[in-house]
UniProtKB/TrEMBL annotation:
PROSITE patterns: PROKAR_LIPOPROTEIN. Residues 1-30 form the signal peptide. Keywords: Signal. This is DUF4214 domain-containing protein. InterPro entries: DUF4214. Pfam families: DUF4214. Residues 111-169 form the DUF4214 domain. The keyword Metal-binding does not apply.
Length: 469
């Protein structure tokens, strides 16, 4: 496709077919607050010079400094992607210098200040906050002069807490040979090992809340300049197993919901093992399922309910919605998606396994070859070729793009990464999301779906194609 789109699920509540079938006058909504001022596309002269992963060590150190814990996988990648989008340096010292003048970076950092975790951790005065930063980084109390200096900066309003945290962190690197730098580096390595070990959805879900965070802070607090990070691998594994054992039952699977009385307008909700919800909607016609749009929510499940903000994409402007459903795992979802036009009732049952079996591993052989794929109503079709190794290429109206699909073990979902290239209106933009393979037309056809968006989730990408099974 030569464009990235924005959209709205609200039309599903009022005149779903007419509104989503080509109306582009949907209401506008601001991007998520943390991303509101982040650059999401760059000119060819501003293309990122570092990979997302290049920023990981620095982001881990920033998380340790402020929160005293490892970054969660989603937070790590999202923060790193924001830094990559603004082509930020990968050096802490250089990043700190940039933060004095770059408003986008200031807003990104200051997102820590307003987080719920920050409010819970640092409800006290700024003196306690400075003490905590020193303990997080160095495992010691601040010296009197240092504390007075930073406390003065924060109390006067010259620096936010997040900016002070970064300054204290980067200041240690003015003396790279010091024990403080060795301690920070060792803690960052242990943190990276922990985050990397969270490689399943249930493990990611286990690393939520202050109790889980505190259990890992306890590990990091034992790390100093002389610690061998590898010596803590057993403790990391044991901690993850303990957290995983306490995770409530997930609603994971795909559920189907009829939106109108005819039963022809459908909403399918795919709940992944980390509680992420992908909801895609459209109609059954001409022996295939035609998509109008989709929505995504990083929901939180507690064993009986899923709640969370949801970002919706159709063919107009993006809309912020809210997901609030109860569930009986593998049996039903009941509740509503709150849209700008009112609530969209959800009473969804599992999709028949003959159409889509969530509990089997994703099979790349089902989708290899060349597909003619639709986008949205009245948009040109794309030609997409999927290779046996999961890579794919595509073209549409002079726009070329490349990507990769990685199947999940024992789950019928592909993780998708795609980058737009020559001839696209946002060349260089990276899109992440999912790929799905399912059946339509009573099992006669194979349907291949790609859903994704850029990092701030204010621009979406959607393809679907059908061919005989």
């Amino acid at each position: 496709m030569n464009k990235l789109y924005q959209g709205a699920l609200a039309c599903a509540v009022a005149a779903f077919v007419a509104g989503c079938g080509g109306n582009t006058s949907s209401s506008t909504t601001a991007a998520p607050s943390m991303a509101a001022t982040i650059v999401t596309s760059q000119t060819s002269a501003q293309q990122a010079t570092h990979s997302v992963e290049d920023y990981y060590p620095m982001v881990q150190s920033i998380y340790i400094s402020y929160f005293g814990r490892p970054a969660d996988p989603a937070g790590l990648r999202q923060f790193a992607e924001y830094l990559q989008a603004m082509n930020a340096p990968t050096s802490l010292v250089e990043l700190n210098t940039l933060a004095y003048t770059n408003v986008q970076l200031q807003n990104l950092l200051n997102g820590f200040n307003s987080s719920q975790e920050s409010q819970e951790l640092y409800a006290g005065d700024n003196s306690a906050f400075i003490d905590a930063i020193y303990q997080n980084l160095f495992g010691r109390a601040p010296d009197a002069d240092g504390k007075a200096f930073w406390l003065g900066k924060v109390n006067s309003g010259e620096m936010t807490r997040a900016r002070a945290s970064l300054n204290i962190l980067s200041g240690a690197y003015n003396d790279p040979s010091s024990g403080d730098v060795a301690a920070i580096n060792n803690r960052a390595t242990v943190a990276a090992n922990f985050t990397t070990a969270l490689d399943t959805g249930v493990e990611v879900r286990g690393y939520r809340g202050q109790a889980a965070a505190q259990s890992v802070r306890t590990i990091l607090r034992t790390v100093n300049s002389a610690t061998d990070p590898a010596s803590l691998s057993g403790q990391i594994t044991a901690t993850i197993n303990t957290l995983k054992a306490a995770v409530p039952l997930s609603a994971e699977g795909m559920y189907h919901n009829d939106i109108d009385a005819t039963g022809n307008t459908d909403l399918n909700l795919l709940v992944l093992d980390d509680d992420t919800v992908w909801a895609f909607y459209g109609v059954e016609r001409n022996s295939q399922y035609d998509l109008f749009g989709y929505a995504k929510s990083s929901a939180i499940g507690n064993g009986t309910s899923l709640t969370g903000a949801m970002k919706d994409y159709g063919n107009g402007t993006g809309a912020d919605t809210t997901l609030n459903v109860n569930y009986s795992a593998g049996s039903n979802l009941t509740g509503a998606i709150q849209t700008n036009n009112g609530p969209l009732s959800i009473n969804a049952a599992p999709v028949a396994s003959s159409v889509y079996n969530y509990n089997t591993g994703a099979n790349i052989n089902e989708i290899t070859g060349t597909w003619t794929m639709s986008q949205r109503v009245r948009e040109p079709q794309a030609t997409v070729t999927v290779n046996a190794n999961g890579t794919f290429t595509g073209t549409v109206s002079g726009c070329t793009f490349i990507g990769a699909l990685k199947g999940r073990a024992n789950r019928n979902v592909f993780d998708m990464t795609m980058q737009y290239s020559t001839g696209c209106d946002q060349a260089g933009t990276v899109v992440t999301g999912i790929g799905l393979s399912m059946l339509s037309n009573s099992g006669a056809n194979r349907e291949f779906i790609l859903l994704g968006a850029n990092t701030p989730w204010n621009r979406s990408s959607m393809f679907w194609g059908v061919r005989p099974k």
